[in-house]
């Protein structure tokens, strides 16, 4: 029988994994009066946060998982989202009937503000940031927290009832929730990714669907009406539906594009974002070509953000200025520079094929693509059509470089260069950037959009993106 404590004072809690979320949840639980032990399998010299926590009176154990770490006296385990459920302390806790949750669950239980939770395979950070900007313009006191913005537990402790907590949520985080109930849940899309963690697509989808699991008719579920996996979840959602669509004129309340993006409609014709309210009245909000970020997938993100903000109480008129002014987020189709007539974009956040496809489709000029990274078992064949239609050359690096080059070959590209891993990851990416620059002509685009996670070479996609930008600026 699970027994997540309603109050943390005097309760023994184990936090698994330091990193950013572990440090913050440990501090929060300590402030709430819990008896906190933090455990990380890394050696002490790789845990610089340990001394800070110990100075607060928090016990920190590094260098492995002690056999007696988890016992009947422990009332809660809060794990870093990336730690697998096969980790020995997690397995033992579950065997003993101890709750194992992520920081999201703790933050939700402490938070006085209603939450807007945003998840999806692609577009989460852009949409989360955009919602924060729109709610700020509408005077609705947003706090953007979690993977971006203020650490989630810290924000939850400080939030008031008149705030809106705007939270980006991964499948890893959602899988570790129980009572979490956002007032507004936003599901952007679902693509095959993170199967090395989830094991199956079913587990990945069910983790995403936990966004809606505890919602009631008083809450709102914003879903992508064009995504078949999102549509399949509709019968299981009890909340009020607020769909958005790029391809359909919605008959009930929702946000859509007029005219829709359909094969018989030209992609170049003027389009407008339209809101149909609960009474059936239709209101034009903004022309698509006025939206601050280019590309159809960013229009889709904008539709989701509009729906969430309207559900939170903003008026359509209050959303127009931030829709026009928003210029995106670092590492998400981020403009870097123009060098000798070639434009460079950093899309390091693209860690799966779908994200890379969307970035390529958003750009008009011929593209020299830098791609490759951690090999999670994909063959990347879904990239063949977009390589054939939009990409003139590929520079491939990382563990998947031969797979990416094979896709380029099947797409008929004559220029597909493989970059061997050099003395350092940074030097390898600089070499790739130089080679891409050599393949590009004035008017072309060089795009870093790896379609892979970064961990074979870099600590994070952020590090990969920063090094690419440095390489571009020194060309």
Automatic annotation (TrEMBL):
It comes from the Bacteria. One of its GO terms (molecular function) is ligase activity. The keyword Cell wall biogenesis/degradation applies. Residues 118-309 form the Mur ligase central domain. Residues 331-452 form the Mur ligase C-terminal domain. It catalyses: UDP-N-acetyl-alpha-D-muramoyl-L-alanine + D-glutamate + ATP = UDP-N-acetyl-alpha-D-muramoyl-L-alanyl-D-glutamate + ADP + phosphate + H(+). Gene3D superfamilies: Mur ligase, C-terminal domain (3.90.190.20), Mur-like, catalytic domain (3.40.1190.10), NAD(P)-binding Rossmann-like Domain (3.40.50.720). Pfam families: Mur_ligase_C, Mur_ligase_M, MurD-like_N. It is found in: Cytoplasm. Keywords: ATP-binding, Cell cycle, Cell division, Cell shape, Cell wall biogenesis/degradation, Cytoplasm, Ligase, Nucleotide-binding, Peptidoglycan synthesis. Its EC number is 6.3.2.9. InterPro entries: Mur-like_cat_sf, Mur_ligase_C, Mur_ligase_C_dom_sf, Mur_ligase_cen, MurD. Pathway: Cell wall biogenesis; peptidoglycan biosynthesis. Its main location: cytoplasm. Coiled coil: none annotated. ATP binds at residues 120-126. The keyword Cell membrane does not apply. Cell wall formation. Catalyzes the addition of glutamate to the nucleotide precursor UDP-N-acetylmuramoyl-L-alanine (UMA). Belongs to the MurCDEF family. This is UDP-N-acetylmuramoylalanine--D-glutamate ligase. It comes from Paenibacillus woosongensis.
């Amino acid at each position: 029988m699970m027994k997540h404590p309603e109050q943390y004072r005097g309760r023994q809690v184990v936090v698994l994994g330091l990193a950013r979320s572990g440090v913050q949840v440990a501090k929060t639980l300590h402030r709430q009066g819990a008896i906190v032990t933090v455990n990380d399998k890394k050696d002490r010299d790789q845990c610089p946060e340990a001394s800070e926590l110990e100075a607060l009176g928090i016990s920190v154990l590094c260098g492995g998982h002690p056999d007696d770490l988890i016992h009947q006296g422990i009332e809660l385990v809060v794990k870093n989202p990336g730690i697998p459920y096969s980790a020995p302390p997690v397995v033992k806790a579950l065997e003993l009937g101890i709750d194992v949750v992520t920081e999201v669950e703790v933050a939700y239980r402490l938070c006085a503000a209603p939450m807007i939770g945003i998840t999806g395979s692609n577009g989460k950070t852009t949409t989360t940031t955009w919602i924060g900007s729109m709610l700020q313009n509408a005077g609705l006191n947003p706090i953007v927290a979690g993977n971006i913005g203020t650490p989630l537990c810290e924000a939850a402790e400080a939030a008031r009832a008149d705030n809106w907590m705007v939270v980006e949520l991964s499948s890893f985080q959602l899988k570790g929730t129980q009572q979490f109930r956002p007032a507004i849940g936003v599901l952007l899309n679902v693509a095959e990714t993170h199967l090395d963690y989830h094991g199956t697509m079913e587990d990945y989808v069910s983790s995403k669907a936990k966004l809606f699991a505890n919602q009631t008719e008083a809450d709102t579920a914003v879903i992508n009406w064009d995504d078949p996996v999102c549509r399949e979840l509709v019968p299981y959602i009890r909340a009020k539906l607020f769909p958005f669509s790029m391809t359909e004129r919605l008959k009930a309340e929702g946000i859509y594009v007029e005219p829709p993006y359909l094969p018989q409609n030209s992609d170049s014709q003027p389009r407008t974002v339209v809101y149909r309210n609960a009474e059936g009245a239709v209101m034009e909000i903004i022309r698509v070509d006025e939206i601050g970020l280019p590309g159809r997938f960013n229009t889709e993100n904008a539709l989701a953000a509009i729906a969430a903000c309207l559900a939170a109480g903003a008026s359509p008129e209050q959303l127009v200025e931030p829709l026009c002014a928003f210029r995106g987020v670092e590492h998400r189709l981020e403009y870097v520079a123009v060098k000798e007539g070639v434009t460079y974009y950093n899309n390091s956040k693209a860690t799966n094929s779908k994200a890379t496809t969307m970035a390529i489709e958003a750009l008009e000029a011929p593209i020299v693509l830098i791609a490759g990274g951690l090999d999670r078992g994909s063959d990347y064949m879904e990239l063949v059509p977009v390589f054939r239609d939009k990409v003139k050359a590929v520079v491939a690096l990382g563990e998947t470089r031969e797979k990416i080059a094979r896709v380029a070959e099947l797409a008929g590209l004559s220029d597909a260069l493989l970059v061997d891993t050099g003395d350092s990851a940074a030097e390898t990416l600089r070499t790739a950037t130089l080679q891409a620059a050599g393949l590009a002509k004035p008017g072309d685009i060089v795009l870093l959009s790896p379609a892979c996670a970064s961990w074979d070479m870099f600590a994070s996609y952020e590090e990969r993106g920063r090094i690419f930008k440095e390489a571009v600026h020194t060309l």
